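User: Last request for today: this protein with 2'-monophosphoadenosine-5'-diphosphate, please.
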Amino acid sequence: MKDVYTLPDLEDRSRLDEGAGLPARLAVLGDPVAHSLSPQLHQPALDAAGQAMRYVRIHVEPGRLAEAFELLKRLDFVGVNVTVPHKFEALAVCDESEESAGILGAVNTVLFDDQRSLGFNTDGPGFVRAIREEFLVDVKDLRIMVVGAGGGAGQAIAGQCALEHCERLLLVNRTPDKLTALAERLAPCFESERLEGPGDRLQTLPLDSPHLASESEHLDLIVNTTSVGLKRTDPSPLPSACLQPHHLVYDTIYNPAETRLLREARRNGARVANGRTLLLHQGALAFELWFPGFDPLRIMRRALAGATR
Ligand code: ATR
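Assistant: Here's the final one, the structure of the complex with 2'-monophosphoadenosine-5'-diphosphate:
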């Protein structure tokens, strides 16, 4: 049994399942993928649901997702999760995807149904549940800044905030050019009479804008979706002056458990939470797409509490 499989392992089932008691029929695909906690989240839920199969990690290079899907369908896989950097490619490669995946710009969950690949995005709805669980508030009622909105995770979270018609959405990115297409895609969600005009409810700002701190005064929730913080030595992606006592600050990073952003926000008096709840809820929603009628949340929550990687 391997910790990480590769595409050649998918060429025949005996190779894939060598040394394993159960057949692999679910997987997370990524590059890199060795760090993924998804098997630790899904396997206990599969066992509890009486599904006799394994959830494995498969390393797939960019540009090879379609090939991976073909091999997995041939092996009778139920579905897959896709992670960095494949979420955009998955949207393009799936035979069909739910409408919201188009607005979120990415697919993170695939269901193979009768040789067709159906794409979903559970990051967006998982984020809404995570914010409700952590802060007891609804995304739709909040003024939100998404830091890193030009990246894969950022686009999905910003897209979900727009679908929820949140009070205000400020898209922030180091490379502001990456926000133009996103802002155009999300603008129709804000065309209503609620609060100010549509221009004011959806805005973009470069990460190094001198107006960032003054803008953040009028926000409730700050979400980090950049990769800054993954390394323990990373700085905070935001100046400390942007982090104020009335803020809720959510970092999608969960390892390390407290990034410098969260530490500075906590010291400044804000309420903070890390991305474990997003991992949990996006995973539970994916499981329910594969196995409707079984709620894995309690089991996954317990599994995650003990998971390390
Ligand atoms: P993805 O595959 O999700 O796009 P990524 O390329 O690592 O992942 O980028 C994720 C986000 O982190 C992007 O918004 C990226 O900003 P750019 O669009 O300007 O590249 C942001 N990011 C990565 N490193 C950063 C850094 N050192 N400072 C600020 N933002 C950073």
